[in-house]
Amino acid sequence: MSQPDRGDYLGRHLYHELQRLLCPATEELVQQTINPNDSIPGQHIKMYAMDSAALHARALFEFLTSNTVPNHVGIDLYGVNRLASDRYRDRDSDPALGCWSNPLHAFLMHLRDRTVTQRLKSFDRTEMKDLNRMPVDFAREVVELWQEFVRRLRGQDEALADAAQFALDEAIAKGGARCHE
């Protein structure tokens, strides 16, 4: 895989991932606020939003916590060391610790028996939730990691740091405002 232009990749592709995570995560937050028991029929749109949030969260977690490999671009493209996320962790980590990576990979990438789900620790670690209830938690962790990404770019490449901050600000403004609070 050839190395993409860092500015273009940030402004187009990474911004796209942020927006496609934060908007459906905000939708999930709104739906849980107005309809916490899923009692309104015909809410299959929520399922699409949840899938979008989980898929784009996984892509951003992989970018922010991994280096570049042949099948995906990692954070080292920007001269930044991998970020640590004790919530996402490596795929080899103990699932009993509440690691998010295994469930995100397994349930998004493979056909599986969906009747048995793994409970995950919430972002604030106060409760255990089903994967389907995690979009806002994923969004909060990604925003926290993204803010660290911006901090690490500062002093190294101010233009890229500004672009990364702008991408986050725009993604939040276009629908993700409630997910980063």
Please tell me about this protein's structure.
Helix content is 54%, strand content 3%. The protein is mainly alpha-helical and 181 residues long. It has 5 helices and 2 strands. It has helices at 6-34, 44-65, 101-109, 135-153, 158-176, and strands spanning 119-121, 128-130. The longest helix is centred in the first third of the chain and has 29 residues, at 6-34. The protein has a two-stranded antiparallel ribbon with strand order 1-2. The protein has a domain at 6-86 and 135-176. It starts with 5 loop residues before the first helix and ends in a 5-residue tail after the last helix. It is globular.
Which keywords apply here?
181 residues, globular, 5 helices, two-stranded antiparallel sheet, single chain, mainly alpha, 2 strands
Report the count of strand segments: 2
Name the strands of the widest sheet in spatial order.
1-2
Counting DSSP H or I runs of 4 or more residues, the number of helices is 5
Average pLDDT metric: 82
Which geometry do the CA atoms define? Answer: globular
